């Protein structure tokens, strides 16, 4: 028979394992969904919370594990409870043997079957295939690899040095080629020296050289969105077509060209002589005959007293007038 005090301690440990504290770690196990809700919820406890269902589960297990049964029976019992088949197959699984066992042994076997953390094979695969993620710095990548190596060393301490060499090699392969050429064998053998040298090189070179091939390729192929200015439907009269250069909507009534008004018309500025002559009454309407005095206007618009005025109109090719 099992020790009652030991049974109480093991029940508390199991209770912590299958309630809210560890529920997320075992969310994919059908047995926990069987007792804590979901599509496979047990019909005997349809409305009970996870904590209440876990207590009922403990009572059921504790009442039946006070018998003697072997390791094979304990393993199969743990499997059946985790797979949600305990209510159906429980009586078939339990056998009476000579060994004396408590639920703490069952819990140990259960954790071997469904470990709380990653398995050794999963950690080995993650470390062997680890690469720098997009935007991940060298320091964070080093820490992530170091944690994987430490977890592997906890599971198999005899091979801890091999795990350390694996993690340093993964970190070295993630460095840019220019960085790798500056790493010595002494620095390669020591993780701290390798990290310090990599950080020193990273602070010396531009940030673009810190990215590995995958990150550089991703940045080079990033799609860019080009926004095209298109007039909306029902555009008003003052909206100009995008294929036409913008011009002022004002139109000069002198030269009939858009972009200015008559006050600023360049044609009137070129004919400033004409305007000055009209203001002074000096223009001869009969194609350049002498006015009342003998003065004339020069090309700068200045009036010279005593000179004959000559019109700026085209002259005749025959007589020169």
TrEMBL record:
Region (Disordered): 276-321
Domain CCHC-type residues, every copy: 252-265
SMART domains hit by this protein: ZnF_C2HC (SM00343)
Name used for this protein in its record: CCHC-type domain-containing protein
PROSITE patterns recorded: ZF_CCHC (PS50158)
Organism (species): Petrolisthes cinctipes
Comp. bias (Polar residues): 290-315
Keyword terms, alphabetized: Metal-binding, Zinc, Zinc-finger
Tagged with keyword Zinc-finger: yes
GO molecular function: nucleic acid binding; zinc ion binding
Keyword Zinc found: yes
Gene3D superfamilies for this protein: Zinc finger, CCHC-type
Pfam families in UniProt: zf-CCHC
